[in-house]
Structure formats: C-alpha cells, structure tokens
C-alpha cells in the first residue's frame, strides 16, 4: 500500500511539479494538496498523510507556524521544501529546530522551473528516508517503466 504525501505550496505550478516527481515512485501516493497553511492543517486532519511536503512562504499561515501546530496534532513527518530554506539559513535552522525531518531549498527562487531536474531525486530520497523506506532503485524503476510501455516487446518480430 503506497504511503500518503500531502503537498503544501501556494503555487499551483509547484504543486503540479512536485506531484510529477512523486508519481515516479510506486511506493508513494499524493493524497492531497493545499495552497496555504490553514488548508494544510485541515487536510492533515482529514487525510492523515504519512509525509507533508511544506513550503514556508504562504498566505494565511506560513509553513513554520503550520509545522509548530502539526508537531502537536499529527504523526506525519514534515519535509520543508522552500526557497527560503537554503542550507544554513535562519528559516532552515528554525524548521529543523521545531521538528522538520529534512529541509530542502528550492532552486531559482519561488517559481522553480528547474525543481524536477535539480531536486527531484533529493525530494524522493528525503521522503523515503523519512518513512524508513530503502533508497529508490532508479535502474529497476526504469526497467519496470520500459516494460509497462512495451509489454509485448519480447524481441520476436
């Protein structure tokens, strides 16, 4: 049974990109999305995800405030994914201090057009690590996908 992931980001483009990254892993399933912190808290209560991917800069309630509340109300592991959370930054250090299991900085600012290329493997690694799953076998994944795309390709013509 796939493990549930909730994506929390105020950008629809970013939520879609993150959904595409997670879709390559058969052991993970996006169970929902939230566009701000208040909606995120509601969705965590109703959907009970295993992992929450959480942006920091959002309307209504920022990611650090959400993280503080989740610490008290949910067993979901929280991974911060934010352009504010670059290695060693104050928001990154604060997120770790208050309970984030991992902090990943988005490249190129708020709308990270290159997120998939630059951070896709890191995001999957962080989610799998937070859930105590073994690392993703990229080679086996590629073989399975090729077999799905060409199921009758046995070499005989």
Q: Supply the CATH architecture.
A: 3-Layer(aba) Sandwich
Kindly give the count of domains: 1
Number of strands: 5
Percentage of residues assigned to helices: 40-55%
Tally the helices. Answer: 6
First and last CA, distance: 37 Å
How is the biggest beta sheet arranged?
A: 5 strands, parallel
Strand line-up across the major sheet: 2-1-3-4-5
By secondary-structure content and strand pairing, the structural class works out as: alpha/beta
- Determine the mean pLDDT: 85
Question: Describe it for me?
Answer:
By secondary structure, the protein is an alpha/beta fold. The chain has one domain (3-149): Rossmann fold. Helix content is 45%, strand content 17%. The chain contains six helices and five strands. The protein has helices at residues 12-23, 37-47, 63-73, 90-97, 115-130, 138-149; strands at 3-8, 28-34, 51-54, 77-82, 102-105. The chain has a five-stranded parallel beta sheet with strand order 2-1-3-4-5, sandwiched between helices. α1 (12-23) packs across α5 and α2 (37-47) runs parallel beside α3 (63-73). The chain is globular, with a radius of gyration of 17 Å. The model has no long low-confidence stretch (mean pLDDT 85).
Write a compact overview of the structure shown.
This protein has six helices and five strands; from the N terminus they run βαβαβαβαβαα. With 157 residues, it is an alpha/beta fold.
Question: Strands, helices and their partners?
Answer:
Elements lengths: L2 E6 L3 H12 L4 E7 L2 H11 L3 E4 L8 H11 L3 E6 L7 H8 L4 E4 L9 H16 L7 H12 L8
Parallel strand pairs: 1-2, 1-3, 3-4, 4-5
Helix pairs in contact: 1-5, 2-3
């Amino acid at each position: 049974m796939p493990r549930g992931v909730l994506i929390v980001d105020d950008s629809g483009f970013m939520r879609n990109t993150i959904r595409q990254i997670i879709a390559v892993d058969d052991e993970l399933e996006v169970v929902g999305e939230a566009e701000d912190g208040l909606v995120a808290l509601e969705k965590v209560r109703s959907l009970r995800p295993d992992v929450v991917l959480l942006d920091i800069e959002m309307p209504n309630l920022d990611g650090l405030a959400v993280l503080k509340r989740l610490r008290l109300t949910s067993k979901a592991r929280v991974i911060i994914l934010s352009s504010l959370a670059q290695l060693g930054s104050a928001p990154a250090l604060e997120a770790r201090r208050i309970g984030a299991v991992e902090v990943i900085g988005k490249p190129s600012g708020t709308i990270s057009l290159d997120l998939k290329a630059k951070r896709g493997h890191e995001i999957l690694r962080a989610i799998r690590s937070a859930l105590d799953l073994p690392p993703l076998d990229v080679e086996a994944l590629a073989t399975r996908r090729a077999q799905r795309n060409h199921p009758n390709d046995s070499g005989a013509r």
